[in-house]
Amino acid sequence: MGMDTKNKMTVAKEKIILSAESLFGKQGFESTSVNTIILNAKVSKGAFYHHFKTKEDLILAIIDFEHKKNQAVPNQINLVETPEEKFKTEISRWFQSLEDIKHLLPWMVPLMAHPVMKTKFQEMEPEAKKVKEYLKLLLSAIKIKDPASEAEILYYYFGGLKMELSVYPNTDLAKHKEVILHKYLKKS
Known about the structure:
- The protein has about 190 residues and is mainly alpha-helical.
- Helices cover about 75% and strands about 0% of the residues.
- It has helices at about 5-25, 35-40, 45-50, 55-70, 85-100, 105-110, 115-125, 125-140, 145-165, 175-185.
- Helix 8 packs across helix 9.
- The chain is elongated.
- The chain starts with a helix and ends with a helix.
């Protein structure tokens, strides 16, 4: 397969994913047909079925697509930052990732009980453990008492914010960020 063919397939797949994200947000998952997705994406039905067997497969691709864009644990760490700057940078990055995905949450959160999604999130459990461990390291570096417990609290705080954004998309994330930064970086 030549590079042009591979690029066209990648472009088509991304068009389908972005089209589905937009349409699911406007119409909901159940109310959006494959035909509507491909018409909106301006791709053929064959392109859709080349990449996805079902709409459920498309949901999984959306999760992977967004997950890769918004990795919870960075691949590179800036060693120049102080622990406090690093914590602030990471919390800011996490809030930006919430901002980036909040348009998905109103339709995605209700689908979390769907068997396909439930299985996908169970498969991602080892990553959740890595995220909690990373939070623990960040909190330890800024000398937070009981960083393991605080890492759990912070991890679930972000999960709760996703739920809140699914119902209240205009939630003030800047205020939440300010609260978290104040809680962990306040000067004694």
